[in-house]
Amino acid sequence: MGLRTYIVEDNATIRENLVDTLEDLASIRLVGVAESERDGTSWLQSHSDAWDLAIVDLFLKQGSGLGIVAACRDRQPAQKVVVLSNYATADIRARCAQLGVDAVFDKSNEIDALVDYCAQHGA
Predict the structure, then answer these.
(1) Which of 5, 35, 60, 109 has the greatest count of CB atoms below 10 A from its CB?
(2) Is the entire prediction scored with pTM above 0.90?
(3) Which of 99, 102, 115, 106 is nearest to 27 (CA)?
(4) Are 63 and 91 in contact (CB under 8 A)?
(5) Rounded distance, CA 17 to CA 7, Å?
């Protein structure tokens, strides 16, 4: 079946590479993508039973991933929200933790850790 995964990432190349990697190595099943805060928030809230994992970039062309994360605070206990960002600083990690994010991964050097996280939660 795979971990039903929704990805919010505005860079098409990064998004496609991420999907390919996670489908191959972590057996995720992509259920949708968004490029903006509005689209991501709208889909996640209107399809509240259709996803297990949301992977959210913080800096989007329109809006912020932090808004999406905040909108997902009232999700089901089994649903996970993780942040994948080039700006995974200590301050960003702390802010994400305050908003209820389950994990934060740095795009530049923590993709393997994200794959491991998805594989663990998809089992």
Answers:
(1) 5
(2) yes
(3) 115
(4) no
(5) 12
